[in-house]
Amino acid sequence: MLKHELRKKYKNLRTEVSPEQVLDLSLVLANSLLQIPIWDFFYYHIFLSIEEKSEVDTLPIITLLQGKDKNVVVPKVAGNISMENYLLTDNTSLKKSAWGVPEPMDGIEIPENKIDVVFVPLLAFDSLGNRVGYGKGFYDTLLNKCKKEIVKIGLSFFTVEDEPISDVNENDVRLDYCVTPEKVYAF
């Protein structure tokens, strides 16, 4: 299936997820992360959710990471398709971008080569670990700048797509895991 078809399908499916379901399913996803061997790392990059798009609420994951004394890093759009990464602290001020994404206003910048784990937003994924995002390329750009051994984890309310994504290109970065309410997929 083509990316643009999957984007349309999953954007529509997300509109059917109530705010209560988003919270309940997001808690299940956070608890499921305990099954993945990622807890010996230091820097965890995580997106901040766009509530209006019924994205996975990453606050339970952030709370879990902070409870384990991990360094949480959040993105800020810095250019055409690039992002800067800032340490999330108690003093971090957030402001919604033009796209509705909460972003840090300033703070301690963390270089890509320090990041150990990235929680990747997505709309759909296939059994090979390919993902469909919103189509701008921000996360593929970030992941291509990170060290090769970085752990890439997708978060989805929906199960794996039966058909492979047919228009994957050389800049697309595959996931190592994808966590859904029913299962943790390893690729």
From TrEMBL:
Reported cofactor(s): Mg(2+)
Keywords: ATP-binding, Ligase, Magnesium, Metal-binding, Nucleotide-binding
GO MF term list: 5-formyltetrahydrofolate cyclo-ligase activity
Catalytic activity: (6S)-5-formyl-5,6,7,8-tetrahydrofolate + ATP = (6R)-5,10-methenyltetrahydrofolate + ADP + phosphate
InterPro entries named among the record's database cross-references: FTHF_cligase, FTHF_cligase-like_sf, NagB/RpiA_transferase-like
Keyword NADP: no
Leader sequence residues: none
EC number assigned by the record: 6.3.3.2
Family stated for the protein in its record: Belongs to the 5-formyltetrahydrofolate cyclo-ligase family.
Protein name: 5-formyltetrahydrofolate cyclo-ligase
Lineage, opening ranks: Bacteria, Pseudomonadati, Bacteroidota, Flavobacteriia, Flavobacteriales
